[in-house]
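[Meeting: bench + compute handoff]

Bench side (C.D.) handed over the final construct sequence. Compute side (W.E.) agreed to return the predicted structure before the next meeting so the bench team could plan truncations. Sequence as handed over:
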Amino acid sequence: MRINVTFRHMETSEPVRNYVEEKLPKVKKYIDEPVEAQVVLSVEKIRHKAEVSLAAKGITIKATDETADMYAAIDGVLDKLERQLKRYKDKIKKHKPLSGRERRVEKTVFTAESIDEGHPEPSIIKSDSFQVKPMSVDEAVMQMDLLEKEFLVFTDSSSEEINVVYRRKDGNYGLIVPQS
């Protein structure tokens, strides 16, 4: 776990930095991938504020806590982070795909030059195949957000049709459902 501690409106304190570096790795048990943590500690008059932003495996989780004591603010923000990570981990565990119903889809990327130069066939620069997992639309949106993708291809668990959920420019989500 890589931890970056920043102090704002206060002097750099090694005991506080060591406290953060000692306590923060305890939330790593909820995340499998390497984690990068950005911790910002600040003092505004009598309020001590701790902000933590964790980035791992395509998800970013942020939490903030304010109290009259910096150590209490750090403990409070770590409790909030732990609750959020536990909730995400439980959601992902509950949304396991049904085995044997996955489909394999192939993705191909073409070069634009091959089309512009008047070639009869575009040239393939990248090809990839992946499993399309059965899930509900809500699960697909959650997975897309966790992976920070613009779209996600999935098999609808109720109709067993391949669907696409995508992020619209206005911040909402769109769903493409094939018609027979």
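W.E. noted at the follow-up: Strands lie at 2-8, 36-44, 47-56, 59-67, 103-110, 124-132, 134-135, 151-156, 162-167, 173-176. C.D. will use this when planning the next construct.
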